[in-house]
TrEMBL record:
Lineage, opening ranks: Eukaryota, Fungi, Dikarya, Ascomycota, Pezizomycotina
Protein name, UniProt field: 4-aminobutyrate aminotransferase
Keyword field: Aminotransferase, Pyridoxal phosphate, Transferase
Cited InterPro entries: 4NH2But_aminotransferase_euk, Aminotrans_3, PyrdxlP-dep_Trfase, PyrdxlP-dep_Trfase_major, PyrdxlP-dep_Trfase_small
Top enzyme category: transferase
Transmembrane segments: none
PANTHER family associated with the record: 4-AMINOBUTYRATE AMINOTRANSFERASE, MITOCHONDRIAL (PTHR43206:SF1), AMINOTRANSFERASE (PTHR43206)
The UniProt record lists the keyword NAD: no
GO biological process: gamma-aminobutyric acid catabolic process
CC cofactor: pyridoxal 5'-phosphate
Family: Belongs to the class-III pyridoxal-phosphate-dependent aminotransferase family.
Amino acid sequence: MPEMRVHHSKKHSLPFFEQEPAGPTVRRTSGRPKCELNKTELDEVVDVQHVDMPVNFTQCFGNYICDLDGQVLLDVYAQIASIAVGYNNPSLDHSARSDEMVSALINRPAMGNFPQHNWREILTSGILKVAPKGLNQVQMASAGADANEMAFKAAFIWKRQQERGGYHVDFTATELESAMDNSTPGSPQYSIMSFKKGFHGRLFASLSTTRSKALHKIDIPAFDWPQAPFPSLRYPLDEHTEYNRCEESRCLQAAEDIIKTYHNPVAAIIVEPILSEGGDIHASPAFFRRLRQITKENNILMIVDEIQTGVGATGKFWAHEYWDLDFPPDMVTFSKKAQAAGYYYGEKTIRPNKPYRQFNTWMGDASKAILFRAIVDEIERLDLVRNVESTGKYLRAQLFELSQRSPNLFMNLRGQGTFIAFDSTDRDLFIAKAKELGVLIGGCGERTVRLRPMLIFQEHHCDILIDVLTRVARDMQCS
């Protein structure tokens, strides 16, 4: 079967891993027979409506993903932004084969009741080693939506403990009885405020804060919780400073009004540093600093959802580091590139005052915490956060040149680090054509192309990406 190896790089920096391909391999023949057969067989046992392509993970290396028909693509989507240090990373492979990992996998401890003897060391040498400034404790969860929902629970418990008179004040008999009937005062009508176009998960409480796409929410009962407007800024930012300042001021005032007047009192707000599923929407550090002040002034908690932006993707380990806050967030949720999930916090009053209030069988997964520790070690060994910062500058400069030549296909270029997006006419066709030419990218919002490369993405990968996007633009403008 004829194939084409694509070598686009204008300059070639030394790749982090020797096994990584030099470039994509794309099939010239139509159809993907093995992929289609695999998908058809899979459809007999699970829903495959959302399957993009079956993957042969044994043949994926570094930044490259391989399908069952031997097609090798430069992966600039990274399993929906969840791969940090490359496919089949040797250091992670070594960690996965350790006795410590084997024990965590085959014994999977119920961490809330029976934590393994070295659980504190695993946490402090990995998850807590990279904790956001001011947050020195962690609550583990199973996935991103679960992490957010547990953070919501923590906020509600914290709020009620305050109203009850303090951490050590016990429940009344009326509270205990009414909680079993889902009524007040045992089940108070608190709310979590989120922002328009935000995304925080697809479980029930998290879905009530998700505002990015109706398809996620349709037919599902929701809590009566408020949403505030999020700034719709104009790009380039330095050319629209006055408009953007007014827009952020408008949204901040609306958020404060909701917090003060909403009929179900707000216990906490949740916000992403970059509203990712909603179209990679940004706001300035000044916006978030004022938002933090508002939460402090109104005695509510601030939850920062770093599930997609965290672990180095923006050129900082945590994207909210760009904000230079006077006070750290109350909680920061994480998942995706961490491979583990949960939320960080600093104040012990955010812990429940009694056992079993934040609890499930496994309380996270020790094996995933071990894997996150290996990822942290690899990020430090290869200085990958710095790599993301420098590669991001290089990539944004190349994309800016493309936007000058094809403004309708590369609109509103924005991003931090390699966490980059632009808007495009006929976005879905744009993504499909890029895949045909050997690059896997993703979309979000209504017309946004989002780039989510791994932390090991380098300048020579940028050159391959830019050459493919240039060809896509040429094809779309000629058609």
